[in-house]
Design brief:
- The chain is mainly beta and 343 residues long.
- The chain is 4% helix and 43% strand.
- Strands 1-20-17-22-15-12-11 form a 7-stranded antiparallel sheet, with no helix packed on it. It has a 6-stranded antiparallel sheet with strand order 3-8-5-6-25-26, with no helix packed on it.
- The longest helix is centred in the last third of the chain and has 14 residues.
Length: 343
């Protein structure tokens, strides 16, 4: 193994992460044309374990959805979710009255904090062609001091997410979408204020990379000695990372204190980068709750049973928005953001 590479692992489901990250999953589903209710036609749901459909059949999964694919309302406490959308549409609804619809290139950053119910559904807006969806779902831990902050979400719209365009000495292109952190003098949009990523000293970096065939890119080193860095090569054929051949569908744990040379020796390649300084606190997880002690987990269950984290103000557990509605974000305080296109 070369000096910069610590480990190489095949990608499983979910992908292996390191502190401060808790979870990472990549979803790519080739959904069919939808019906009048923005869902999957009945004939194409046959043979599935509805409610627990996580095995790809005919190119797609229903996940926990019964008619519309996705994740009907479910609670979270003690961490953050980052949803990066590469293709398709996601509808968000939550127990605080927040809602949204976001598309390709958009990112939703949600601080669960002391507790929130939310749903993430994938409406089949097109009834005359396929509805392809590609997203990353990432869980970023919160330190103890922030686990009980008020919940909220923030949209990082595609028009505002920094995109770094790089050409190597041979003219081959690399494109980096900078979701969180600083890279080569470029700064991401601000994350949620209580996030571990909000402090630059934590060197949280979340980015996706697209490399043209033949391209070379140098990922600059981090500053802190504790920083952990993982690369996920999820689509392409072959890379050389620090001189080591790596085939697609592998994660690569590297030393963050070294500049990292990435060469694309195959066809167009796509990677995700997760980097950050560890929180170094105990992690006790039970399903959707991530705290520091077993007692805090029990308290989370009790609070949820008593309060439902504010209850569910929407008519459906699998809440989807109107077919003709564009990209938008409605925040719990009533502030409304709207965006054109991509719906």
């Amino acid at each position: 193994m070369t000096a910069s590479i610590i480990n190489i692992h095949p990608l499983g489901f979910p992908w292996k992460t390191q502190d401060p990250f808790l979870f990472c999953a990549h979803h790519r589903d080739l959904y069919p044309a939808g019906d009048q209710y923005l869902g999957i036609p009945e004939v194409q749901k046959a043979g599935r374990t509805i409610g627990q459909d996580f095995v790809i059949k005919d190119g797609f999964r229903m996940y926990h959805g019964s008619h519309v694919p996705g994740f009907p309302y479910h609670p979270h406490r003690g961490f953050e979710t980052i949803t990066i959308n590469k293709e398709g549409i996601v509808d968000h609804s939550d127990s605080l009255g927040g809602a949204g619809r976001f598309g390709a290139g958009d990112v939703q950053w949600m601080t669960a904090g002391k507790g929130i119910l939310h749903s993430e559904m994938f409406p089949m807006l097109k009834n005359d062609q396929e509805n392809t969806l590609e997203i990353f779902q990432i869980w970023l831990n919160l330190p103890k001091v922030s686990k009980m902050v008020p919940p909220h979400f923030k949209m990082l719209w595609s028009e505002e997410v920094p995109v770094i365009h790089h050409k190597d000495q041979n003219g081959f292109a690399t494109e980096v979408d900078l979701i969180a952190g600083t890279l080569n003098g470029h700064h991401s949009l601000k994350p949620t204020p209580d996030s571990w990523a909000a402090n630059p000293e934590n060197e949280v970096l979340v980015a996706t990379i697209k490399m043209e065939a033949g391209a070379t890119y140098i990922l600059p080193k981090a500053q802190g000695s504790e920083v952990k860095r993982n690369l996920y090569f999820y689509r392409g054929t072959q890379l050389e990372i620090a001189g080591k051949p790596v085939s697609e569908h592998h994660s690569i744990e590297v030393l963050a204190l070294h500049d990292l040379k990435i060469q694309n020796t195959g066809r167009e390649a796509f990677l995700l980068i997760l980097q950050g300084r560890p929180i170094h606190e105990p992690v006790v997880q039970h399903g959707p709750f991530v705290m520091n002690t077993e007692m805090e987990i029990r308290e989370a269950f009790t609070d949820y049973q008593q309060t439902q984290f504010g209850g569910w103000p929407w008519p459906q557990q699998e809440q989807v928005h109107e077919p003709n509605k564009g990209r938008f974000a409605l925040h719990s305080g009533g502030r409304l953001e709207t965006k054109e296109g991509k719906s």
